[in-house]
Amino acid sequence: DVLLGAYGFAFQIYGDFAGYSNVARGTSKLMGIELIENFRFPYFVRSAPNFWRHWHISLSTWLRDYLYIPLGGNRGSAAATRRNLMITMVLGGLWHGAAWTFVIWGAIHGVAQSVEHWRRSLRSARGLPDPPDTARRRWARRIVTFNVVCLAWIFFRAESIDTAFDYLTQMLDPGNWLEASPLVTFGVVLAIVVGIGGQFVPRAFTARLMAGFSRLSPVVMGVVLGVALMVINTLGPRGVAPFIYFQF
Question: Which pTM value belongs to this model?
Fold first, then answer.
């Protein structure tokens, strides 16, 4: 239950935040304003630095321009660069709220980026070429990066440090692995599978789908949108669910 809860929250917050970012972009386009793309399949990336080039791009760009670069960026030594990464990510965590949970969330991302920088620096100093870009290596890096991000989400979501560590204890307790999971229903698993599968849809396919939809007649377009809204209304929660990121 807690393991799928962590994965489920990863896609809940992604769907929530990317969803209303796209609503804002679409509404702005109606008024002739082009807003920055805020998400680009963030759970498909192969490293921690790439995650922040694809997740909440407006914030990560601000952190880069107004924190990381003024601190010195990567213009100093390798140790100074890793220090700047840590400071930037911890302050990025504090931006979300004055709580230790957000500090740890930012620190996990800072450590992940620092380790990636250290690994690249070590190979460069030894004159070693980049490892072969095999399919197995790409998938391994995607899986590791995704799970590190999900680990950080536990602290982001938890109301306190004690709650987060209790959650991790429940997740890692072998005695819980074979117990029945009443909360893991078919619908929950399907939602997570769809969320993961959506990360692998080629951008070109999405663009072709949108272009094809725009060429439909107004009547057909209205019918498609009506059916889509009916399905959303049927499967979605009752009432208006508040956006998770509005608290920030």
Answer: 0.87
